[in-house]
Design brief:
- The chain is an alpha+beta fold.
- The chain has helices at about 10-20, 30-45, 70-85, 90-100, 105-110, 140-155; strands at about 20-25, 50-55, 60-65, 120-125, 130-140.
- The protein has a 5-stranded mixed beta sheet with strand order 1-4-5-2-3.
- Strand 4 and strand 5 form a beta hairpin.
- It is globular, with a radius of gyration of 14 Å.
Amino acid sequence: MTALVSAKLTSDELLDQERRARFSTFSHQHALRLGEAMKSVGERQNLPIVVDVYAFGQQIFHAALPGTCQDNFHWVERKRNTVLRFAHSSLFMGVLCREKGASLEERYQLPKAKFASHGGSFPLFLEDKSLVGAATVSGLDQVSDHDLVVAAILDAQNMSADI
């Protein structure tokens, strides 16, 4: 898995990640394999994470590893909603809002119960910039959640030829 350190990334650097992390094609099979890859990282490292891949208007992959709880599911849903609403990673939205001096709720008048600007959900883009869904992890600190998802997506970009 690709190593990332996004703790100090700016919104411009996070946008660059989004530009680099795109798929030539993406299908249900890709979503399942991406979810399995993230889950495998969690299992190998004994991480208490929930993994979720949402694409084409539906949840395609979801797994809750030992040590997680119902709160993680709600974090997944809120972070995913943010990605689907803004077509940017949930970490990008949090960093952007901090750079602008207002919370997501203040800046966009969104309910905190439905949206979260914490890292861990990342858009699933095709090369033509169309958004097909979001991959999300919850259970670690927000930067580690984000890094796990981005690393899995960058690694998975090559799987298009394998399916």
